[in-house]
Each structure stands twice: as C-alpha cells, then as structure tokens.
Amino acid sequence: FLVDENILHKILAAAMLDKNDLVIDIGSGPGALSLMLAKMVAGVIAIEWDRGLAAFLREQANNLGYNHLYVIEGDVRRLNLGKICCKIWGKRFSADGNGRHIKVVANLPYYLTTPLLFQLLQEKEPEIKLLVLMVQLEVAQRIIAGPGKKDYGVLSLLCRYYTEPEFLFKVSRNVFYPPPAVDSAVVALRVLPQPPFKVFDEGIF
C-alpha cells in the first residue's frame, strides 16, 4: 500500500482532474487514492478484488458522505467495465456536451499491468481519455520505449498505437508498506482520438 501522501498528490496533479471528470481506480485497496479522487470529481468507481478491503472502503465512503464513490468487488480482468460504467453513470460514461469523460487513475498491482493495458486500450467501452498509472519501473520503461531501444516490445507498440505515453516520475520502494522488492514509476497515457496509422487487421497487428 502506498503510504506517502505527497506521491498521491503528484498523481492527482498529473491527472489534471476537474469536477466533471469520471474516474476509475483499479486495485483501490483501502481507498487512499479513491477517497482523494472523490473530493475532486463527479464520480469514482473503485475496483478491488479483496472483500475485506472493498468493505472497508465502502464504509469509509459512507462515513464521509461520498455517495458518488462506487466500490465494485471483483477481478477487473473478468469485469465488463463498459456495462459497469453505463449502469452507474448512465449516458455520462461517454464524452458528452458537458465535457465529461473517463480517466483511469490507479496504483496498479504489478501482475495486472500488461493484461490490463491490453484490455483497457483495445476495448471500445468505456471510452477512456487518459490513464495515469503507477507501475513497476521496468514496465514503465517498456511502455515509453521507442523503436530500436532495448526495452521496446509488444507493450511499447500497444501503447504507442493507441496513446501518447509519457514517463512522469520515479517512485521509491520506500513509500510503500510493506516495501516491494522493486521501484515504481508513474506514467501518463493520453489516448489518441485515432491511431497514428491504419492497419489492415488490428488483431493480426
């Protein structure tokens, strides 16, 4: 769990939040990030697979009167996020005349990062505009790697096809409890309105 509030504030600043935003927090844990998000935006969906942590966050949200913070218990890889957003937010889950759009702001469990990025970027719903993610440092380096670099691979290609990736800052392992064995980093992925080039078949590509 991230225990340094300064890092949380830097993540929130990077997400460029406003009161009309709808935000998904994946792997919310006890909810430090979700609760801070709820102070700033129109709606938050927190996804947490651990039943005890999900219940704790629901209680916290209820005590604070955050009825716009919804806690979903389950494995995000097996959830239909488009349907969840539609059920909770209605037509607001797509960008509309009020400027509302979805952002994903999360401290991702390391093992989830690659499959989750494939899921979020390849699915058409929900329509995501920006992802600000804390990930393992070496994964961040793969995300932003350009052609010809040693870290360049399928994850780099995926992210550059669908987004404009940016390395924001490194995060020491010492700001977590208990501390992990590796350092982390925060990246921003600004989803492109359309891919930078056309391919004959996205699946084959």
List keywords for this structure.
single chain, 205 residues, alpha/beta, seven-stranded mixed sheet, 7 strands, globular
Describe this structure in words.
- Helix 5 runs parallel beside helix 7.
- 33% of the residues lie in helices and 23% in strands.
- The radius of gyration is 17 Å and the shape is globular.
- The longest helix is centred in the N-terminal third of the chain and has 14 residues.
- It contains 7 helices and 7 strands.
- The chain is of the alpha/beta class and 205 residues long.
- It has a 7-stranded mixed sheet, with helices on both faces.
SSE pattern, N- to C-terminal: HEHEHEHEHEHHEE
Cα gyration radius (Å): 17 Å
Distance between the termini: 37 Å
By DSSP (H or I, 4+ residues per run), the number of helices equals 7
Write the layout of secondary structure elements.
Blueprint: H1 5-14, E1 22-26, H2 32-38, E2 43-48, H3 51-64, E3 69-73, H4 81-89, E4 102-107, H5 113-122, E5 128-136, H6 137-144, H7 154-162, E6 163-171, E7 184-191
Parallel strand pairs: 1-2, 1-4, 2-3, 4-5
Antiparallel strand pairs: 5-7, 6-7
Helix pairs in contact: 5-7
Structure described in brief:
By secondary structure, this protein is α/β, with parallel strands linked by helices. Helix content is 33%, strand content 23%.
